[in-house]
Write a structure and sequence with these properties.
- The chain is an alpha+beta fold.
- It has one domain.
- The chain is 21% helix and 30% strand.
- It has 3 helices and 9 strands.
- The chain has a 6-stranded mixed sheet with strand order 5-6-1-2-8-9, sandwiched between helices. The chain has a 3-stranded mixed sheet with strand order 4-3-7.
- The longest helix has 16 residues.
- The radius of gyration is 19 Å and the shape is globular.
- The chain starts with a helix and ends in a 17-residue tail after the last strand.
- About 5% of the residues have low confidence.
Length: 178
């Protein structure tokens, strides 16, 4: 009897560890690839616990691969005299109490983005910009890069790196083999 209970407990633990994979979507465009990357990132990456807000970038490669990069964002968006300084990200996904946001030339600005950025304390009102309100670049900070097969977004590879996504993909995904 103890053997069956132990088998049931082990099976339950294994099953619960991969429940998040059911949230991934096979077909779609770069937005679905971003969503899949966010789900995987929150459930598997230790980097997900280091920040609450993440900057996302994506690239559609000619080789049939969609690249998605997720990086913890430490910068604020400054509002000086009720005017934003610099461009504001267009789109966002909120998942597991984390905010992921990116520029999106194709879809345009989500009307709720300002409220969401404010909710996560990313927007800061200041009287004027000073050296302390500049943009911080941390070259050692790691991002997680995802490379998805465009025809099957369940096929992907990922890597943590402090180097930006490449201009061309050198990862072997074998998208057409599966």
């Amino acid at each position: 009897m103890k053997k069956y209970i132990l088998i049931f407990i082990v099976f339950s633990i294994i099953q619960s560890c991969s429940v998040w994979k059911n949230e991934l979507t096979k077909n779609g465009d770069y937005e679905i690839a971003i969503k899949n990357a966010v789900i995987d990132f929150c459930n598997t990456s230790s980097l997900a616990n280091k920040d609450k807000a993440f900057s996302v970038s994506y690239k559609e490669y000619k080789s049939g691969v969609i690249g998605v990069s997720i990086l913890g964002d430490i910068n604020k968006i400054y509002l000086v005299n009720d005017s934003f300084q610099g461009r504001i990200k267009d789109r966002y996904i909120e998942y597991n109490n984390h905010l992921f946001y990116w520029y999106d030339e194709k879809k345009g600005k989500d009307p709720n983005i300002i409220n969401k950025l404010s909710e996560y304390n990313i927007i800061e009102k200041v009287d004027s910009l000073t050296e302390d309100t500049g943009y911080t670049i941390d070259d050692a900070k790691k991002a997680t890069h995802y490379y998805f097969c465009r025809d099957n977004l369940l096929l992907y590879k990922k890597e943590a790196s402090s180097v930006a996504m490449p201009k061309e993909v050198k990862k072997e995904l074998h998208c057409s083999d599966k």
